[in-house]
Amino acid sequence: MRNTRRSRSTCRTRGTGRPRALTRRAALTAASLTAALVLVACGDGGSGGHPGGHGSASSGANTGATAGAHNAQDVSFAQGMLPHHRQALEMAGLAPDRASSAEVKDLASRIEKAQGPEIRTIGGWLTSWGEKAPTSSGGATDSMPGMEHPAGSAMPGMMDGSDLGELGEASGTDFDALFLTMMIDHHEGAVAMAAVEKSKGEYGPARSMAADIIAAQTAEIAEMKKLLGKN
User: Which of 15, 23, 134, 203 makes a 20 to 30 Å CA pair with 48?
Assistant: First the structure.
């Protein structure tokens, strides 16, 4: 990933030769995602999710300031998903000026519209619970004490500084391919984290948001793979 010229050249193959660093991350994320979905299959199914949109249906805007019954997993989910969403917005915010594809720009806009309100809702939960809210967008190796992630990993799907730097320097079709490749990994990480919350969380609005994240971001992953010509 740190060799920008090689990575950009690779991107021009429309996803058929992903940068090696992202390929390794994708393999780890896929393993985490598989483990997390097994947890969901084995756990109880009553999440109260609303498939089809992870911004409006589940975020609990009316319950964000209500403490409610919650457990340590709910806190871990909120403290992990907050920087995870912030990084997605950071990546999506580059698209209007750098992407060449109208589809990529539209996807980035939808990500911002969905995850921005969720960030505010999650912050409200943490405040109401008296818990610390992370203040940055984090990084691939960032983790907060006590956070439970699939397969004992650091936050899955997070980009590091060099990844974000390369994305920020790319433009045109190079940006499109790199953005889609990175955002697929990022979404897969969010789905893995949400699957753990759905299986082990207690707080209803958080479990509902987790169900919506799984439904909406899984659909967006399929959309992004199609844009990369992978299907």
Answer: 134
Q: How far is CA 178 from CA 93, 125, 129, 185, 195, in A?
A: 14, 33, 38, 11, 26
Report domain extents, the chain.
71-231
Length of the chain: 231
Cα 94 vs. chain centroid, distance in angstroms? 16
Neighbours of 90 (CB within 10 A): 14
CA 176 to chain centre: 18
DSSP 133: P
CA 79 to chain centre: 13
In the predicted model, residues of the chain with pLDDT beneath 70 are 1-67, 136-154, 230-231
Distances (CA, A) of 46 to 65, 149, 152, 202, 217: 23, 21, 25, 11, 20
**Considering the domain 71-231 in this protein, what is its CATH number?**
1.20.1260.10
Phi and psi, residue 199, nearest 5° = -80, -35
Give the 3-state secondary structure of residue 99: strand
Q: DSSP code of 134?
A: P
Q: pLDDT tens digit string along 125-141?
A: 999 999 999 876 554 33
**pLDDT at 158 (0 to 100):** 95
Contacts 24+ apart (CB under 8 A), 15-18: 15/177, 15/180, 15/181, 15/225, 15/228, 15/229, 15/230, 16/229, 18/181
Distance CA 156, CA 190 (A): 7
